[in-house]
Design brief:
about 190 residues, mainly alpha, de novo design (two linked rop proteins), about 80% helix, rod-shaped
């Protein structure tokens, strides 16, 4: 009887150890995925800031090429303010709106360059536009990477048995995807001269 009881306690102890190991593994996995998501979010913010800095140089290059520079500077200032607010808050929706502001400001700058051939031919302007285009590609890649990490985190948090352990360990909310308002994305910004 003593050996049977020892075997039962041994089996129970192994099961408890196995459950604790599984819970620790799930917790570590969810923590890594949360950290990957936050890192990917930081990459978006970094790329957006770099794009904004390059746009500032582009706005300075545009200065002096027409009466519409004040509109461009105002749109740029609004984009800069929106990005700062979004970056400070860490809110995905605010970052999306800030990014849309920057996209609209860039469209206005490009439209201005079309109206002024000497600006369009300016070597600094061309280099800055190329750098901004490169940064826009990096921003798009960062957004895709962020959304992939969000999908991985959310899926892990929602599937059984991870969802049970995740909720017990405080992983109770899905992360938000970075996506544009489809209606806004379809609208072309208005550029007037």
């Amino acid at each position: 009887m003593g050996i049977a009881l020892a075997v039962i306690f041994g089996v129970i102890a192994l099961m408890v150890i196995a459950l604790i190991a599984i819970a620790i593994s799930i917790y570590n996995s969810m923590t890594r995925k949360k950290n990957y998501t936050e890192h990917a979010w930081g990459n978006i913010h970094t790329q957006e800031r770099q794009r904004l800095d390059e746009m500032g140089q582009l706005v300075n290059t545009v200065k002096g090429y027409g009466e519409h520079e004040k509109d461009i500077q105002m749109a740029f200032a609004e984009a800069r303010g929106a990005l700062k607010t979004a970056g400070d808050s860490g809110n995905v929706k605010e970052m999306q709106k800030a990014s849309e502001h920057m996209d609209n400001a860039m469209v206005n700058i490009r439209a201005t360059s079309e109206a002024y051939p000497e600006l369009k031919a300016n070597e600094n302007f061309i280099k800055l536009q190329d750098r901004i285009s490169n940064l826009e590609n990096k921003v798009a890649q960062s957004r895709r990477h962020y959304n992939n990490t969000v999908q991985d985190f959310n899926s892990s948090r929602q599937v059984f048995p991870t969802n049970i352990v995740a909720s017990m360990m405080g992983f109770t909310e899905d992360k938000e995807y970075f996506e544009y308002d489809e209606e806004e994305a379809r609208k072309a910004p208005t550029v007037e001269f």
